[in-house]
Amino acid sequence: MTKTSLASVALLTEAEAARAFNMGTTRFKARCRTLGIARWPYRKLMSLKNLYYDLTVHLKRALDGNDVDMEERARAMMEEIKTYAALLESDLSLLNSFYNGKKAWPDHILKIRQTIYKKRHAEVLVNKKIAAKNAKSEQVAARAFSDASDFDSRDDDRLSDDDSMQTDRDGAGIEEYAHEWWQLALEEPNFAIA
């Protein structure tokens, strides 16, 4: 097992790389430490790979939006990441210089990560604003529909109240009821409204 053979399995997890060399993880870690690799670089290399992928997404947006300046910057950043990844593949022990309380990445890679993070965060904020705006317009539409249906139901309630006022207990209409009342009032002088 040499540094070059380790570089060929660097994109595998530590357990998978140990299996590739037919040894357990504890023995594999010890062997890596003797070769100058303090930590297995899988997570850091995957982070670099994801950073490269995010840059390709931003590059695609720049090409769609005809933003030449953004396109040039994205291509330059992608080239920096490619160069750094090639350097790491040639010597995995270079990653040790960014552990143990020191910076996690070189300055130029940190700057790229910060740029991508800010763009991603800005995109999330824009999406949240759009979602809030859509939700608000849906609420307004629902409220307008609800108000219209409430108005219709109030009309229906008024009509049903009027209908119930027009019928007495026996089911006679209001005209018949009024006619009966007048006749009773005329016939009996001491008629009181009950």
From TrEMBL:
Pfam families: RWP-RK
Keyword Transcription among UniProt keywords: yes
GO MF annotation, one: DNA binding
Lineage top rank: taxon: Eukaryota
Signal peptide from the UniProt entry: none
Domain called RWP-RK: residue spans: 1-69
Stored InterPro entries: RKD-like, RWP-RK_dom
Annotated stretches, region: Disordered: 148-169
PANTHER family noted in UniProt: PROTEIN RKD4, RWP-RK DOMAIN-CONTAINING PROTEIN
Physiological role: Putative transcription factor.
Protein name: Predicted protein
Organism of this sequence: Micromonas pusilla (strain CCMP1545)
